[in-house]
């Protein structure tokens, strides 16, 4: 499989095919808007790297406000079978076998510095912005799902059915793959992702979002004084999402 995807001729063919197929993925919606969410007069720069710190000691098992907020923000409201429903963020329960300690934590795209989803994408649809946000350009996504197999966090969803009532700032399409984009349309306007805002409004303050490259940002200041954990640190992907209290 990998040998085929790295062949230049095949890559060119897939890019051309995707350009044609992408037009019909979601008629009437400019899927390019995802990769151009940053205003033209404020170019994306690698001087910033957006990240998130999640304090699992403040995240309760019965709370799913972050999941609800994501569903509303991105219009993930289609009525479909649970086994094929899209999940950009999900709550996962963990139990330490040694201590019996139980944890409840939200899992989303980890926005890796070295995203394996982008490495295996044959068309370049999965890519990382200069500021570290990993996105999917659904206009050229051909739905091969290699990225889903490569993601160690199972953070991506494939859309099986035709969608309606989409949000103009969060275009989606049948036959494409999607995942958390850190609410890039909000970040580019100086706002927090919807999940972070919902967590704060619920009074939990379990999620902090900010610039990891800014030593004076709230998230950087917090990371200086607490121990944080990266999921699957053994893979050395340097994710932008860190967990406190695991």
From TrEMBL:
Keyword Hydrolase: no
UniProt entry tagged with the keyword RNA-binding: no
Classification via SUPFAM superfamilies: 4Fe-4S ferredoxins
Segments forming domain 4Fe-4S ferredoxin-type: 50-81, 132-161
Matches recorded under Pfam families: Fer4_11 (PF13247)
Coiled-coil region(s): none
Signal sequence interval, chain numbering: none
Gene Ontology molecular function: 4 iron, 4 sulfur cluster binding; metal ion binding
Keyword annotations from UniProtKB, A to Z: 4Fe-4S, Iron, Iron-sulfur, Metal-binding, Signal
PANTHER family: PROTEIN NRFC, PROTEIN NRFC HOMOLOG
Full protein name: Sulfur oxidation protein DsrO
The species this protein was found in: Thioploca ingrica
